[in-house]
Amino acid sequence: MKYAIAVFLILLSYNIFGQASEILPEPSVDERVELLSIVFRLADCQEYSSRRFPKYVENIEEHFIPYKDHELIKYITKKLRKRGIGYDAVMKMAISITETYPFEPIVPFSNEIPEQRWGEKQATKFLKLLNRFYIDADCRNFFDANKPLYKTASQNFNKVFEELDVSWYQRFYGENPKGAFKIVIGLGNGGGNYGPKISIDGTEVVYAIMGTWSVDSLGMPVYEIDDYFSTLLHEFNHSFVNHVVEKYHSGLAASGKEIYRVLQTRMEAQAYGIWQTMYAEAVVRAAVIKYLKDHNYPEEFVKAELDDQINRGFLWTDKLVVELERYDQNRDKYPSLESFMPEIVTFFDGISGKIYEIQKEVESRRPKVIGVLPFENGSAFVDPNTNQIEINFDRPLEGNGYSINEGHKGAVAFPEIGAIYYSEDRTSVFIELKLEPNREYQFVLTGWRFKSEDGYGINNYEINFSTKKE
From CA 295, how far away is CA 164, in angstroms rounded? Predict the structure, then answer.
């Protein structure tokens, strides 16, 4: 299926896609992004501890592990993490400093810049320690040694970048993007993608920092269109959407607070800590679906993207896409998205009044785990010779792949996993394990691949157990 979609998109690009490279700078690796990712990895921040690019992680560990007790890393662990600095806050700092050593603020730090969680005092001290770390850890040598890898990654990402039809954005939104847009490949970020921005002398620069979560047989990063393209579309939308939604925060506040209250846990799990961010994400995600439909993507590709948004908690996405189609069909009345925003305010007012009903409907269609064998979830003293776990669901699953992540205990508790397969009726999943005695284990089944036959993903299901001594 991936091959068929890729061929389809390549053929389509020759016929109707604009050349993104004529308007946007080509994607590249940004050493600031890599450096910030590395130091937060050394501080054991889970979101920056991915091992999905093993070759690069090995390079990082070989060079930087001796500096794990550096004063900078201790400051991150003891001070910054307690202030909630992680995820997007790390990348906001990365784009807020100059590109070369010695690092300085591009815009003077304040309690709002680079971001509220940092605060001026903490940001200033962090930058001072970062400059010291850069010299102490010989970072220049590391980046120089990895330049060939950075070049390969940038070249491999180009096939995704070249599919981007920039002209659609200007037509659809009825305006040019506010400021500049840069695509950065984050090699150490795993599956994390971020869209930070910075305003420099009145010009806003929006970044799409794309993670790297797949490699080829040689261990080099690969960027398949059907794995990465929707994310790139998503991030580019932010440069058209964010400032428009911000103008209508007062009108959106009542519904936003109510909807966010209901969905807060799911939104916070994605680092969307306030209703304002949720609404910007909501419009962006619906716009991605509109783009795919306008470019005649295969129906199953569009449905998979829509299902993903609903599974992430944006339960109204199908309905919001209908609203965007109504906007696009009446451009004489609505020349730009901004002119249509009062309609979106009304739309979310309606959603807030029935959010419980919508949530109940979606939850009823999600598969649920009804049992774990040969031991119960949460068991202690499991036989370490157990070589397989069976997970049973209340209905047949789609049966297209598997999605199993580390839990909050991290890699140390993640078991060695072998073959994974479904029962014939797809109501059970069998996972082969290799266990050790006297160990705690934890892993999480996610709805990315564990879905019902009609595309509804399970809620994250955490499995915990410990083995007995031999």
Answer: 11
SS3 state of residue 186: coil
- Domain assignment present for 411: yes
Positive or negative, the CA dihedral 45, 50, 53, 59 is positive
User: Quick one: angle between helices 299-311 and 275-294, nearest 10?
Assistant: 170
CA 348 from chain center: how many Å?
Answer: 24
Backbone φ and ψ of 105, nearest 5°: -65, 135
pLDDT tens digits along 415-453: 999 999 999 999 999 999 999 999 999 999 999 899 999
Q: Residue 342, preceding bond cis, omega within 30 degrees? A: no
| Alpha carbon of residue 76 to chain centroid | 22
Domain span holding position 267: 248-363
Same-domain check for residues 44 and 169: yes
Give 177-195 pLDDT, tens digit per residue: 667 889 999 999 998 888 8
Q: Is residue 75 part of a domain?
A: yes
Structural domain total, the chain:
3
Looking at the fold, whether 343 and 413 belong to one and the same domain comes out as no
> Residue 429: enclosing H or E segment and its boundaries?
strand 428-434
Mark which of 363, 398, 415 sits at the end of a domain.
Answer: 363
